[in-house]
Write a structure and sequence with these properties.
Low-confidence stretches: none
Number of strands: 5
Distance between the termini: 80 Å
Helix content: under 10%
Order of helices and strands: EEEEE
Strand order of the largest sheet: 1-2-4
Strand content: 25-35%
Mean pLDDT: 85
Radius of gyration: 20 Å
C-alpha cells in the first residue's frame, strides 16, 4: 500500500512591531493602550469641534497607521 505525505511550507513574515505615536493636531485626542501591530486607536475632538476624517486607525504590518491626517475644526466654521 503506498504512503502519501503532504509537505506544507510556512512563510515567516516579519512585522514591524510599532507604529509609534499617532499624529493628531490641535484639539484632537487619541485613545489607545498600545501602538503595536493590529492595535486600534480612537480619535476624538474637544467639545465644540468636529472630527474631519476617520475616527479610528489601525497599526498595519508595515509600521504605518491605516488612516492619518485627521483634523478637528471649530463647529460652524
Amino acid at each position: 500500500m503506498p504512503i502519501c505525505f503532504t509537505i506544507v511550507r510556512h512563510s515567516k513574515r516579519s512585522y514591524t512591531s510599532d507604529c509609534h505615536t499617532f499624529p493628531i493636531n490641535v484639539h484632537g485626542h487619541v485613545s489607545t493602550n498600545s501602538t503595536t501591530y493590529r492595535t486600534s486607536v480612537t480619535i476624538t475632538c474637544d467639545t465644540g469641534y468636529n472630527l474631519n476624517g476617520n475616527s479610528t486607525s489601525i497599526c498595519e504590518s508595515n509600521g504605518h497607521w491605516s488612516s492619518i491626517g485627521q483634523t478637528c475644526s471649530l463647529v460652524g466654521k
